[in-house]
Every structure is written in C-alpha cells, then in structure tokens.
C-alpha cells in the first residue's frame, strides 16, 4: 500500500484511510465480544459481574474515559490513541456483559463489526468510484440489511432488533458524520508528524468514539436543561 497517495492531488478519495478505519472499528467490535464472553463465561469473572454495583462501576469508568477522550483527544499521541481505542471497546464489552445476555451482545456487536468489515472490503475494491456520501449510505444499507437478515434467520424478538438497529445506526451515522473531520485531521497529522496511514486510521477510529462521547454529553446537557426547566415552573 502506498501511504497517503491521496494527499497529492488533494481531491483523490482517501480510500486506504477509510479501509483501515473500518477495520479498526470492526476489530474493536470483535474485542468487545471477546471481553463480554470472558466476563459471562469464566466463573471467577462472572461472579463479579452478576451484582448490580458492577453496572454502576462500568458506567462510571466508561463515562470518565469518554470525558478524558473529549477533553484531551487533540493531545493524544498514536500509542495513547491506540490504548484509548482499545480501552473504549473493552469497557463497552464489560458494560454490555453487565446488562445484556451473551446472545444479545454477540448479535449487536457482531452485526456492527460485520458492517464495518464489509464496508472495508467495498472501499478497497470500489476505491474512488464511490463518493463520500454514497459510501456511507451504502455502509448503513449494509448494516441494516445484516440486521434484517440475521434477526429474521434467528427469529429474534423486538429487543434484539432494537439492539442491532441502535448499534448500527449509532456507529454508522457517527462514522459518516466524522468523515470530513477525519480527513482534515489526517492531513494535519501527516503534515505535522509525517506519520503513516495506520496512525491516522487509529486516530480516525478513535474520533468516531469521540463523537459518540460528545453525543452522550450533549444529550446529558439537554436532559439537565429540561429538568431545570421543569423544576423552575
């Protein structure tokens, strides 16, 4: 692979970057599934995850990690960005293990990971033939199609459908919304450090998590405004 062949001329679509970001995100979903499996199947770990307080611990850990990511993302070096990317997926897998069944976790994370893996293959072979908006629309269609096929095949109920749809839409739409900023950040990182495509892909995948954390914080802020407005009446 040629690193950053898309930088000159600048209008060439950064296909290689997109492929690697999708692969990092897909790998993160697999990591989350593996961690959840360990938490639910190893007796020593499973005993700790059954009590309710574990849910609060995981939520607090994920919230603090997201807050630090939100505040310090621009200062992250590539090794630290990789560590934080792994950490967010680990905490997500552990939190899901506290709340959902193994089948539900494998289904939601597996479908989302498959969406990213298939999208990486599409980007690799289609290259610049796919426009930015069209590519992310296709990514969402892949995710929604996988959701329908898997849930119909397994005869799942509404909860499984909702879980898959939420994960696919959350990560698919967030990735699409992050695309412009990811490309700009990759160019800035390249010019500043003359780094590799993989380094930029790690930062790009972590930016998807950053935007998810930002969305959560904005929803919490909106909720606080609504609650304050109700109390003031």
TrEMBL record:
Q: Which residues cross the membrane?
A: 21-42, 48-73, 80-102, 108-127, 134-152, 158-177
- State the superkingdom: Bacteria
Per the record's keyword annotation, is Transcription included, yes or no? no
Q: Where in the cell is it found?
A: Membrane
Q: How does it sit in the membrane?
A: Multi-pass membrane protein
* Keywords for the protein's UniProt record, in alphabetical order: Membrane, Transmembrane, Transmembrane helix
Main location (coarse class): membrane
Matching Pfam families? Bax1-I
Keyword Zinc-finger included in the entry's annotation: no
Which named protein is this? Modulator of FtsH protease
